[in-house]
Amino acid sequence: MASFILLFFLLAVPSAVQAQSSIENNSCITCHSDIWEEELKMSVHGRENILCQDCHGGDPTTLDFDAAKALGTGFIGVPDKKKIAETCGGCHANVETMNFYGLRTDQLARYQTSGHGKKLFGEGNAKVAVCSDCHGAHKVLPIADPNSPVYPLNVPKTCNHCHGDDKLMSEFGLPSGIFKTYEASVHGKALFEKKDLSAANCTSCHGSHGAIPPGVKDIGAACGKCHVNEKKYFLESVHVKAAEEGKFSECISCHGNHGVQRASKMLYREACTTCHEQGSAAAQEGEKIFHVLAKSERGLKTAEALVKRASIEGIFVEEETGALEDAKTNVISMAPVQHSLSLSKIAELYQKFEEVAQEIKSRVHKKRQALKWRRAALIPIWIFILMMACALWIKYKRLKGR
Amino acid sequence: MNQPENLSSNPSLPTSPVSRRDFLDWVIKGGLFATLAGMLFPALAYLWPVTRRGPAGGLVEVGTVDEIHVWGSKKVVLGGSALIVVRTPAEFKAFSAICTHLGCIVYWDSAKQLIACPCHAGFFGLDGRVVSGPPPRPLATHPVSVVDGKIFVKP
Amino acid sequence: MKHLMVRWLRERFDVESIRGPLKHQIEKPLPKNIGWFHTLGSMSLFLFVSQVLTGILLLVYYRPTVNEAFGSVKFIMTEAYVGWLYRQIHAWGANLMVLIVFLHMLRTFITGSFKKPRELTWVFGVVLFLLTLVFGFTGYLLPWNQLAYWATTVGTEVAGSIPWIGEWIKTLLRGGDSVAGETLSRFFVLHVIILPWTMFAVIVIHLFLVRFQGIATMDRVGAEKEIKKGEGTPFFPHHMLKEGVVFFILLGVLITLAILAPFDLGEKADPLQTPHAIKPEWYFLPMYQVLKYFPKLVGIFIVSLAPLFLFLWPFLDKTKERHPLKRPISTAIGALALLSLLVFGMMAHLSETKREFFGRTYQFDIYGIPHPAAAEGGELPGNRP
After folding, report:
1. What's the pTM value of the predicted model, to 2 decimals?
2. How far is the C-alpha of B117 from the C-alpha of B133, rounded, in Å?
3. What DSSP string describes B1-18?
4. What is the ipTM of this complex?
5. What are C60-71's pLDDT values in tens digits?
6. Same structural domain for residues A220 and A294?
7. Which 250-279 residues of chain C touch chain A by CB within 8 A?
8. CATH entry, B60-153, from 3.30.70.20, 3.40.1000.10, 2.60.40.10, 2.102.10.10
9. Which residue of C has its CA nearest to A385?
10. What is the spatial distance between Cα C168 and Cα C174, in angstroms, rounded to a whole number?
11. Residue C316 near residue C374, CB atoms below 8 Å
């Protein structure tokens, strides 16, 4: 009976302590108060009462140093990398546990498919990243917290902890300068300079938990997640077949990958000839598209300058400004449409643009003409006024002379 | 440059002082009359109502109810900027037609029942909010009122 | 027809007894010294009538609310037929009116016409000049554009620095703490109802005094000779013809300015965005500049002395002579006042701008003092051989 009661207590006491959530009574915290105060307390786990013993094991009910870390308490100390993934997965891969937090549960499964996970679980290589390398260990913060290492603005730096390490990367035969390349890219600038959180960071293309370089076939899918229209029109282009055969890496063949720059029409002169011979039919087609694009850019600038000048001249150009938006739409639309590499489609847009541009031009011209007429009307007005003035003056002279 | 002087030096015209004075009086009277008429007629023309569009400010008529079928739309240029009017079974809605991403003019995608931007596949819902795509901000909405089958929008 | 109408009137009114005095007034002989400058008064009246008429036309489409004022003025300028012309003539007419009323006053000063017995005519004339300025100030706000909004903000701020009652006057003028819809309503009412009728009444008094006492001659005070019949120039038709000549030229100038130098409407008033270096209209510039040099209170005191002196001038300058050269002190003070108006006005005009003179760029500070601006890419002063 006594032993039964003892057993009852042994089982009941820890859960009672957890339920009461008394942090003061947690003996881990009593000694490791620095970790609690500086890291765990403000983490998502600390706030949810997920405490030391939940990951590290041990008995938080006893203040006795040895008893707390005794064999039967499940104390593991600092977990190794594999253990980390499994420990986190213990809760985070549990659908029931995660349900009310609204969190996904596929992170561990994805991790196992990632470059990191395969190395760790397949080869036992512990020099790869696990959960804590990106999320932090004790101080795990929500993704939306700007201080979190996985907050979109911080992701590239977090990845760069390892991927910028020359020595470590050489072991895997990977480059280590990607952060710099990315930083100077259009995505990097959008993220770091404009603080645009929706700009693509490492995980946008590589995935986060399932991080892996997209293969030739998957690049279109990766970029197409955001660049929807570009992808749509690309599928109409002549390159689709080559891409399906794995000979042509959809987007990056022309745009590059980590260092992707703001695309300009100059790509038609630079990128086409990397595969097509200079002067070949394909290269010439590219040159033609280049010309239409150049023509529309020039045309748009001219139209904008015209409306601006007219407004400085004091002409009301509200309607023209509205039409300008219309003209601009056609030119901006050329950017995604050109991925079809269809000259006729681009020319069609140019035609529409040209119509609007001409309309603007003729309207401004008409308004300018009206102003000219006003000025011209001054001539007959002054002739009449001088005539009247003279007539009245002569009459005055005559009356005085009488 | 002026008539009276030219006329007085012209020998072919009657030169008797009486008729010359009469002529001068005639010029002055005619001139004053012309001046008055020249002031009056533009004023009357100015007062004639401008039927094209009511005075700016307040609501501006952009079309009739019959013009837009249910789940249809119409683009209008008002106050130097483009607007899109969409008709739902319940009401008319007007939005700025300028995409908040790069400024393309959006269109009404009746199949998706969303406002779509042709340039980068941005989609906006019928409350103007971004449904998907790159636009950073929702489309500005404009108050609409329908009176006697005519649609009025506040620019 | 004409005969019938005359008869109809004669049967009802004592036409004969009206005709005499009317004829007397119309043909009243004017003194010989009357010249071209004596048409300035009639031209002021013409401009007032022109302002009233174009003002009425503008009122047809104008809407005095914060949301609609700017749009309605834009409507007048773009949609209504020849609306642009009426707005420009109204705007230029206002500017010319200030100028011409001032010149009329200057003429009266130079010919000494303000002296006994015409002191009251002068005083009412000064009232008319001040009313013209208030007209300009209130009308300037009505298009509700950026310039107007901020010029009014600054203008009413000046009133706020008057001791004791300043804050109260400022709030009264603005109809609130800041220039807003209430200010627009107030200024509108002042501009289209109160001021026109006040001005009309004062003009009637002014004109009555002028006709009643006759035009001043250049004779010494108290030694004015009555003009005998057939001696002077009859007002009608002789002087009227002269006025007709000036009237047509003024009309031409007005239309020409309206077409060649139109006033921009600019941008709609934005209370959250102050434009750089806001300045009042040119006729307030001298006063604006003087206010900059003195601490607020002293500045207001000095500036308010000017209209006071204008009012009191006929009672201060009591010499008998009218000819400007025969009363040198009076003329010198007048010339000095005119010169200071021009100098301060010019300095205010140049202040806070960058201008080029003789190939060098100067930056004018807030007091209108030029500083050589560092020319971009230009040689350094020390590098000169």
Report:
1. 0.72
2. 9
3. --HHHHHHT-TTS---HH
4. 0.86
5. 999 999 988 998
6. no
7. 251-252, 255-256, 259-260, 262, 264
8. 2.102.10.10
9. C248
10. 10
11. no
For residue A316, list chain C residues with Cβ-Cβ distance below 8 A: 74, 77-78
C177-188 pLDDT tens trace: 889 999 999 999
Separation between Cα atoms, residue A362 and residue B64, nearest integer Å: 29
In 10 A of CB B64, how many CB atoms? 12
Task: Tell me which of A51-55, A70-74, C304-308, C316-320 is least confident.
Answer: A70-74
Lowest-confidence pick of A69-73, A368-372, C141-145:
A69-73
The four Cα atoms B52, B54, B60, B66 give a dihedral, to 10 degrees, of -50
C-beta separation of A380 from A388 below 8 A:
no
Position B122 scores a pLDDT of 87
Cβ neighbours of residue C29 closer than 8 Å, sequence gap 6 or more: C227, C228, C229, C230, C231, C232, C233, C234, C235
**Which two three-digit tokens encode residue B103?**
């400024």
- The predicted pLDDT at position C126 comes to 96
Q: Which of C67, C72, C81 sits opposite B55 (nearest CB)?
A: C72
What is the separation of C-alpha A190 from the centre of its chain, rounded to a whole number of angstroms? 7
Domain count, chain A: 2
Residue A12: what pLDDT? 44
Q: For residue A386, which residues of chain B lie inside 8 Å, CB to CB?
A: 1-2
Residue A158 located in a structural domain: no
- Of A4-8, A260-264, B18-22, C225-229, least confident by mean pLDDT is A4-8
CATH number at residue C246: 1.20.810.10
Tokens of B106: 């959006």
> What does R_g of chain A's alpha carbons equal in angstroms?
36
% of residues, chain C, pLDDT over 90: 50
B122-130, long-range: CB < 8 A, 24+ apart: B124/B95, B126/B86, B126/B88, B126/B93, B128/B95, B130/B100
